[in-house]
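re the bet — no i am not wrong, look at it urself. input seq straight from the record:
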Amino acid sequence: MIDERELVVRPIVQDSVQHNARTVSNIRALTASLFGVAAGTLGLESFPGFIFYFLGTAVVSLLIFTLKADSKPEAYFYHPVGDLWAGDMFGGLMSFVLTWTLLYGLLLEARLEQAQLLKKVVDAIKDLVQDCNFDCNDSGIALQAMDNSHVALVSMMLKSESFSPFRCDRNIALGINLTSLQKVLRCAQNEDILTVKAEDAPDVVNMVFESADSDRISEYDIKLMDIDQEHLGIPDTEYAATISMPSSEFQRICRDLTALSESVAIECTKEGVKFACNGDIGSGAVTLRSHTDVEKPEKNIEINLSEPVALTFSLKYLVNFCKASGLSDSVKLCLSNEVPLLVEYALSNNSYLRFYLAPKIGDEV
């Protein structure tokens, strides 16, 4: 305590002391909430979480003692120990616990500016796979699954940059039936803002649709499934031929040729790329050559070839792949002999939707 002579020289004003106490209380409330956010984000549980709070509070008190009270708290408070060191510590504990439990429970939050992106992705793959895991980590949301015949594989990656904000505290797999997901996504308008949320060890995934031009907010929960799905490592491949072309052109070729045959032979040479088929009612062929249109670059056709390639594929699968044409103006085909065909649709922020299709062996077109 300050002696009487010190009080005469530097009197303690009651209004100032009350102001100091309120300031400390406000700092306690703010830092308690921040500590709760940090503890929840770090995934702290039980005693480590409370120890984190009390240590953090002690550090805050030490900073106030050193920087604001000039190491002389008796000059600023009637009861330095109670007001500075222990004041509102347990009151701030309630704010800490509230934000701690809220942030700890929420594991994933991803906000997509336009719901139509996910709608189109699901529409493109739902006929190939029925149930699949959406693998979420700090890089984004990925999907990999094979069709029932193990002929085709789909691989999707939505990078974290595609979302704003994006948060995923730990790796998590969300097993979802795509038919159920499509039904829920149909409830959203294309321009709606989509937010995907999941808690720790979730039973459901939460989806919130916000109308961009009104106050309408709709919320749905989709039950999750426990899907035992093997994640295949896709090796990097140096393809002998790479063709970039308008996705609408590729869709048209597949649609036209499927009327004649079940298979298509894709032959890539220095003259161009040829799509040919032969069926019961006749045969058909479409040949494309490299083409550059400065005014309409979306119509460009680029062919990079290191060696000639000729492979045969099922048109049924290619027609299914073409359902992704609405996602991108262009499509890239990558071919090598005795290697699955890669059909890639590039999305924004380096995201992508890829299809792999095994060639037919010894099959006549």
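see?? The radius of gyration is 31 Å. told u. also The first strand starts at residue 106 and ends at 112. so pay up
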